[in-house]
Amino acid sequence: MRAALLTLVLAVAVLAGRATAAPAPVYVIAFSGSGTEHQVDNKQNIQDSGACDSAEHVDVTAALSWTTSWTSVKTASKSALATPTKIDGSQLTGSHVKDACGLPIDQAPDGWAMQASCASTLVSGASPTLALASGAKSLSLTVTAPSFAVPVSAPCSLNVRNDQLAAHVVVPAKKLAGLKKGASLTVAVGTAVPGPGDDYAPSLDCSQPTKPYEGYRTADHCQDDFSWSGTVRLTRAR
Fold first, then answer.
1. In 10 A of CB 215, how many CB atoms?
2. Domain boundaries of the chain, sorted by first residue
3. For the segment 3-58, what is each residue's pLDDT rounded down to a tens digit?
4. 20 to 30 A from 108, CA-CA: which of 66, 89, 159, 189?
């Protein structure tokens, strides 16, 4: 009888403990940043004789800026949906010139010569993403910024290196457990402070020379410089 009573008391205690157990913490994760991509591309169309009668010069700079966040995130989650993202101030500026390789412009092929200046607001494509992996000693976060694109109507073009706008952050479990409601942890991210698994390419040779075709070949000298910096902030909401 005593054994049965003890078993009943223990069962009630376990159930009471479950009923009063604290709910899992909920976090808000914010990712903001800004960056610059500068591309200079000089192409020359060279005839079989070695003469150049047409060239193309592109010098463009993309200014990138974004702010986004994910709310109601639990460490057991694998991913979450971002709130509306702001990319205010993101734009492309520069110039696009076609000339006659330094010769008088009337020596360029018909319809070739042109000159355009660029000042276009960038648009957003894919949404930012967040992936989480919770372990015994740490919480790993992988964040990506929204993708940026130049409107098709813009006089200058650039394929923004959106694959570089990603970061990996590792938060020790002890720091996470000690975070009180309303408190935050902020981690600097970007090309100057790569995290585990981040493989950034600040400078890239984007040259694409071509072989001779129909009496012409293209000599191309292209350089693309890319950098960005930002923060990942984890705030305990409750």
1. 10
2. 24-236
3. 544 444 444 444 444 445 678 899 999 999 999 999 999 999 999 999 999 999 99
4. 159
